[in-house]
Amino acid sequence: MARHVQSLLPRWCSRIFSVELNGAPSYFAVKEKHQGGGDGPRGFKELENHDRCYSVLVYSSRDRIKTAKFYGELKDKLLRDLPPECHFSPMSSFLPNVKDSLIKGYFLKGNSDISSPIERLLSHLIQHDPVLVCSYCPAEDGQQWTQRMWSQSENTLMDMPKAYYVVPSEAPDCHPSTLSIINSDVYYSFDEAYDVMKKCGDIIPEAKGVLELLPSKADARNKPDFPVIVIEGLDATGKTTLTESLRDTLGATLLRSPPECLSPWRARFDQEPPLIRRAFYALGNYITAEQIGQEGMKTPVIVDRFWHSTAAYAIATAVSGPVCNLPGEGSEVYCWPSDLFQPSLVILLTLDPEERKRRLRNRGQGKTDEEQELDHNQLFRLRVEEAYRRISGPACVTVDASPSADQVLQQVLLLIRGKCHL
């Protein structure tokens, strides 16, 4: 068994596992001894017609770029190679309240009729890829489930007489992903994002083009002579109309983040796993900051989105479920990067969800995966909006975008004149 897998085993019975079964997260743990008299986890009791299930967990290696790439590609491989009757759901395993203990993977729901092709695929995976495979079967009483690890060297289940018994577990105090957000889903320094992009150079040719556009100096905190106002908000809340009106009214320069110079590579990096995709957008903020520093010496600057958007979407994507799963208010994940320029004022446009959807339909434009998720996943939208509100240094000032464009403009101008003295 690989060294990285062996390092997990001493605390295996201390780990919590999370898998979405029948639309809701099910948490379970494993024990070496039969508990006796108790039922298995709630989600397992609902596994109708599935008497043979499997988990595939991607363990972390020293090369986190390759680990992230493999995890992203694993889903495509499973979709392509598993029997159509086999269904799978995202899964994770973690030590409660322990940073960097989270490992992710998938839970496969099968049965004895399709177990052979599933096991052939999994046997191939454990020979060549950084995965830990386990199988799950109901015990003789039909209630208790057991977990068995697969041997990496023999393509078979380990010849251990014992099995781990699957037992219910309470939901953790904090969502496990919250302990892995910093410098993985959200970057808090130029150097951290730059290091990831640099390591991608050998496997993603476009990364070299991004690196060539970066500021020669990583300090983007220089204060321009004129105020800098950032306009944030979900799509179709009126950001474009407002930013263009502010540009014309104030004689300002209008910038957009991510900057136009990164447009040729956005589609490419949107396909990458979060570790790489978020580094791309983080570096875009530093390019925008350099542009702010140059233009802000001549005129006021209006920015259509900046770090708030980068962080809010990343946090909301990393953490599933209701808003209460987000890191608590005041958490370090909401703190502005110390080496990134802070704008004078940040306006967050808000809009009734149904009105926003109506505006989106009228626009009829293509949307990113995250924007599509906003449309059909209310919980995701609520997490994004709340993450926006919790970011500090500077915090957002909320403005209702439902009145007419001119009324919204006048309200924002009042805020700018009061805060920035323009």
Question: Which properties best describe this structure?
Answer:
14 helices; alpha/beta; eight-stranded antiparallel barrel; 422 residues; five-stranded parallel sheet; elongated
Q: Could you give the count of β-strands?
A: 13
Rg, rounded, reads 24 Å
Mean pLDDT: 87
Helical content class: 25-40%
- Give the strand line-up of the largest sheet: 1-2-8-7-6-3-5-4
Number of helices: 14
- How much of the polypeptide forms β-strand, as a percent range? 15-25%
Structural class: alpha/beta
Rough outline: elongated
Order of helices and strands: HEEHEHEEHEEEHHEHEHHEHEHHHEH
Main sheet properties: 8 strands, antiparallel, barrel
Unreliable sequence segments: 154-160
C-alpha termini separation: 66 Å
What does it look like?
The chain is built from 14 helices and 13 strands. The relative contact order is 0.12. Strand 6 (131-138) and strand 7 form a beta hairpin. The chain has helices at 3-6, 42-45, 64-81, 115-128, 190-199, 206-212, 239-250, 263-270, 274-295, 307-318, 353-363, 369-376, 378-390, 405-420; strands spanning 16-21, 24-31, 52-58, 87-94, 103-110, 131-138, 145-149, 164-168, 228-233, 253-256, 301-304, 345-350, 397-400. The longest helix is centred in the last third of the chain and has 22 residues, at 274-295. By secondary structure, it is an alpha/beta fold.
In short:
By secondary structure, this protein is of the alpha/beta class. It has 14 helices and 13 strands.
